[in-house]
Amino acid sequence: MATEASGWHRSEDDQYWQFSGQIEIPDVDSRQYGLIKLENQLEVLLVSDPEADQAAVSLDVGIGHMSDPDDMPGLAHFCEHLSFMGTKDFPVENEYKNYIRKHGGATNASTSSKTTTYHFKVQAPFLEGGIKRFSAFFHSPLFSSSCVLREVNAVDSENSKNQQMDSRRLYQLWKSLSDAHHPWNKFGCGNKDTLLKGNIEDGSESRQRVMDWWQNHYCASRMKVTVVGTESLKVLGDLAYQNFSKVPNRSLGPLPVTKLPPWSTSSGPDLWFVKTVKDTQRLEISFPIPDQDSLYEHKPSSYISHLVGHEGPGSIFNLLHEQGLATTLSCGLHSAGRGVSLMDIDITLTKLGLGQYEKVLSAIFHYITLLPSALEEPYHFEELRKMAQISFANAEKYAPDAYAKTISQSMNGLYKRDHLISRGVKSWTFNRAHIEDIIRCMTFDKARIFVAAKSFDSMNVQSNWEKEKWYGTEYTKQSLNRDILSILTPEDHALLYLPERNPLLPESLDVGPRNGIDPFKSPVMVHQRPFSTLWYKKDDQFWVPKGSITVQIR
Fold first, then answer.
1. What is the CA radius of gyration of the chain?
2. Model pTM?
3. CB of 317 closer than 8 Å to CB of 311
4. Is the CB of residue 435 less than 8 Å from the CB of residue 375?
5. Angle, to 10 degrees, between the axis of helix 300-308 and the axis of helix 357-368?
6. Between the CA of residue 532 and those of 105, 144, 285, 538, 550, what are the distances in Å?
7. Which conformational region is residue 428 in: left (phi greater than 0), alpha (psi within -120 to 50 degrees), or beta?
8. Alpha carbon distance 410, 421 (integer Å)
9. Average pLDDT, rounded, for the chain
10. CB proximity list for 530: less than 8 A, separation 6 or greater
11. Which of 200, 423, 445, 538 has the most C-beta neighbours closer than 10 Å?
12. Residues contacting residue 536 through CB under 8 Å, at least 6 positions apart
């Protein structure tokens, strides 16, 4: 029998390693969890849920389109597509998808900048057949030559569909305007022009490139799997052992990490006007910040986004909304790639707000100057932590395939193994220095700004428009004068301040006695007026401290 490793011990049958620690889960979660590691170093999180109607499996590869070769943009995405085209064990092209659909399930996969994730769900009794077909993609895919051209066209069609989506166009423009040699600059989707190499009549060279990519990047020690099923942890572990032990470990080492920011912040603020397809007005600001992946137990980015994204009295949004300049505002961490973190502020402007975008920017940068004072009495962090812990403790189940996908992606992060489900929410601690590091990055001179609209005819915008390479998005760069920081009036300044203490945070989450209460069989009408009716239904099944209000207006 192999010797024990730190934090791990051998299973009783000596088939794999088992995690010795206790995985943190919600208080209301009755499922059982287990974490195992196969001899090929592939980790599998097992979730036993005897009450589930469906089972699910997700595998995260850990490599995305930031690792695409420069001469073949979209290769990681293309590999994802072609992987489904038969295996040695199940050579019929659509055997996997047909089996899953026949048994009430669905399949999907996605490729992002830093990873590729495959997953499926199926009726619970058919998990074993699904996992056999699924796992074969990672140890014996055929990459059938007869499918290459068709899948190139499928990717090209997907890209064509994206051409009219402003969210995609803006996202790619952010990437294309980053430093040319930074991996975030790449075009991740791919199209017919980037994927067809050599003899375009049979796609043989493209197929070879995919096989080489799979050989060079799909490695068991980098992969993470989640299995959700009705079976016991022992049975689920055996299924994982029998099917995923065949995945080759190529000893590729740790996942690639990019430490450089995607663009230089030394040249002052960058302002671009961008033309959209739809008649919409947006303002987007992005600041490169220190890598946040390892700071999940302090959550400095969540602290900042909580304050900047606040919508109550004193907030940026409240000021802009009251003055008719904006309809939505959000702020949050954007993990652009492994090691690459951005703090993004996104605002939906009104027509009036578009014309006064400089005032909007002035309000944002003035509010940012208030953030250091929040550190003097950090009750905001305590409130944020308390609500996050309440939410986690009472987290309800959701779709098994989405759950499996989320966990498998977390497993390829920097979370401690006992934090894979909780993401460390139970151990959040305030760290002033990490918060100050972010605030120092959120200055006027370090900002990159997009003002996006269908037309700028009513504004004094230069006409030297350029077109982005992949989507043809029109944009033009203009200077931004520091004088905009003085646009706000004293009255505006008085309306911007940090949130006050929240008096509505619960002191107790006790839902009351559960015994001796007759269940409500249907909602009860508790209020009626000529123009309104109020119905009430008590939660006497799940007993979670959560309410739901639905208003229907006819």
1. 26
2. 0.93
3. yes
4. yes
5. 130
6. 42, 62, 43, 20, 13
7. beta
8. 8
9. 94
10. none
11. 423
12. 523, 524, 525, 526
Tokens, residue 368 = 């940012």
For residue 200, pLDDT beyond 80: no
Supply the residues annotated as catalytic: 80
Structure-token match 């230089």, residue found: 264
How many helices (H) and strands (E) in the chain? 17, 17
36: alpha, beta or left? (left if phi > 0; alpha if psi -120 to 50): beta
Residue 375: exposed, middle, or buried by beta-carbon count in 10 A (0-12, 13-18, 19+)?
A: middle
Contact 172, 468 (CB under 8 A): yes
Six-digit token string for 250: 């190529």
Q: Which of the four pLDDT bands, split at 50, 70 and 90, describes residue 533?
A: very high
Please report, to the nearest 10 degrees, the dihedral formed by the alpha carbons of residues 187, 113, 163, 450 taken in order: -90
313 by Cβ neighbours in 10 Å (0-12 / 13-18 / 19+) ranks as exposed
DSSP state of 72: S
Write the Ramachandran bin of 318: left for phi over 0, alpha for psi from -120 to 50, otherwise beta: alpha
For residue 96, which of 88, 75, 47, 61 has the smallest C-alpha distance?
A: 88
pLDDT score, position 517: 73
Query: Cα(170)–Cα(452) distance, rounded to whole angstroms?
Result: 9
Alpha helices (H) in 328-428, listed in sequence order: 351-355, 357-368, 371-374, 379-393, 400-411
Contacts of 71 (CB under 8 A, 6+ apart): none
Q: State the residue for tokens 């909007």.
A: 360
Q: Which residue has the tokens 């009408």?
A: 525
As a whole number of angstroms, the distance between CA 40 and CA 219 comes to: 9
